[in-house]
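User: Show me a protein chain along with its predicted structure.
Assistant: Here is one chain, sequence first, then structure tokens.
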Amino acid sequence: MRVLITGHNGYIGQVLTPYLQDFGHEITGLDTYFFEGCQFEDGPQTTHTLRKDIRDVEVGDLEGIDAVIFLAALSNDALGDLDPTLTVEINHSATVEFAKKAKQAGVERFLFSSSCSLYGAAQGDELLTEESPMNPVTAYGKAKIDVELELMKLADDRFSPTYMRNATAYGLSPSLRIDLVVNNLTGYAYTTGEVLMKSDGTPWRPLVHVEDIAAAMRAVLESPRDPIHNEAFNVGQTDENYQIKDVAAIVQDVVPNSVIQLAKGAEPDKRNYRVSFEKISHQVPTYQPQWTVREGVEELYKAYQAHGLTVDELNSSKYLRIKTILGHKAAQRLDDRLRWLKA
């Protein structure tokens, strides 16, 4: 298929792009390149790329495309809270307008990268399904809900959206993020000897390896239309729900001589949810996730060793999305609406 991936130069995108190419799909990447140069290792080569803000995309950019995989967003809660009006503008309004243009251009499938964070502060420890109440605690989570609701209105015989509610990602990517909990805990353990928990460790969180997210995207992309048309899917594995303190224990076990420490002022995280992933396993049986958190921690530890990761690099703007954006603004490369300023 001819697939356009927005955010192809990001954390998930640099894993997903070569993965789909390996299975014969023709990929066009579209990215504003906020994080250009923030590489842990060399990224993939994409034949066709558009250096463009999603807010500026035109119908003509999307003609001839069979499917869109929409990853582009202000990509975590800290960045989403930087300016909630910007989160609405980019993560909600611009995303919906992009989908409308894709439909006008004749794109048949639209895979929206949503998030389990839309469940937010769940009550109790029951497993949440795609039909469970949503209770987002951040602008990022609320925007995901709002986009899903708008895309549902666009669904018809010509335009088939699917909502991929990814669990919290982890794992190695050429465009590494250290602001993800498993990556972060493993990074601190390796560079400082401390498994530094930013919360008290009690919240539940579903976790999924970035390669398993890519596998889910491919499975849905190649699925028959009926099981995935206008459907939401939690993406992950039911056995891979963890309390953060249990993730910390795994990291301590994998990284020699590391000890668990609570960060100063660590409190319970408002986000707390356990999630069921039975729906995707039943309706998209070709999705076969492979990774566990322990395997992911082992992968990260080996990669950090090989790279020679230091604590200064760990805490630099290179791998922390919020610091990258703030650095661009301080250097007057980006304006207050996160538009590139001309040199």
